[in-house]
Design brief:
The protein is mainly alpha-helical. The N and C termini lie far apart (60 Å).
């Protein structure tokens, strides 16, 4: 049962990723390629997949995407809380009036 749940989770992630890829490439191919780290040839293949091919690829038992969080600085920045911004006084005073 657990293996089925894992496979189903991977399929859902893959399908979401492939859908996102196709949408981003349709909206702005160059920007989509840059955001996703895709080569032109890979972007061409992924954007040309039929719905059936997309579902078949998504159903593999391996992730078709990868995470580019490969630097300690990048990972460290994700764990660091953002600097607290002072709350503007004007909006609070307007609400109290």
């Amino acid at each position: 049962m657990n293996a089925f749940n894992n496979h189903e989770s991977i399929r859902e992630i893959n399908l979401s990723y492939l859908t996102l890829v196709q949408r981003l490439l349709r909206e702005d191919r160059n920007e989509g390629m840059a955001k996703l780290g895709l080569t032109a040839s890979l972007a061409e293949v992924l954007s040309g997949l039929s719905p059936e091919q997309t579902l078949k690829l998504a159903s593999r038992d391996q992730l078709v995407c990868f995470f580019r969080l490969n630097g300690d600085a990048m990972l460290g920045a994700l764990g660091t809380p953002a600097a607290a911004k002072p709350i503007a006084q004007e909006p609070a005073q307007a609400l109290a009036a």
